Amino acid sequence: MQTWRQFKENIEQNGLDNLINQLKQKYPTEDLFAFENNYMIHISSIKIKPDSRSQGFGSEIIREIQKYAEKVGKPVVLVPSPEPRKKDALLRFYKNLGFRKNSGRYMDYKLSTPFGITWVWKPNRN
Question: How many domains does the chain have?
Fold first, then answer.
């Protein structure tokens, strides 16, 4: 078993693909997929196994991706796809993690998609 420090060093050396593979091993996911391009990190799918939901694993996964995004200076983008009758809860979940709808005065056309309304989290620029 590797230490947390080794885990972080391994991720820093190998990028987003390695981070996603590490997160799949660390957390009880059914599905986890994200990709990176020159402009953003796009989270395509996060699904926690039913018997492990509501334990904070989804939040931890998002925070780890946000830490990586902070390091590489890219926003994180996603298109929420809630299960039936779960839309409000899912949007609250993403808002609590610092995401906001990519629309209105916050609209960034580079980060939009034709597949639905994008939500964006941007790293702090110090």
Answer: 1
Who's near 66: CB < 8 A, 6+ residues apart? 76, 97, 98, 121, 123
- The CA distance from 77 to 61, in Å, is 14
Domain span including residue 25: 4-121
What pLDDT is stored for residue 67 in this prediction?
Answer: 94
Mapped onto helix, strand or coil, the DSSP state of residue 30 is: strand
Task: Specify if 9 maps to a domain.
Answer: yes
Question: What is residue 117's predicted lDDT score, i.e. its pLDDT?
Answer: 86
DSSP 4: H
Task: For residue 32, give the CATH number of its domain.
Answer: 3.40.630.30
User: Positive or negative CA dihedral for 57, 90, 92, 77?
Assistant: positive
- All residue ranges of the chain with pLDDT < 70 are 1-14, 125-126
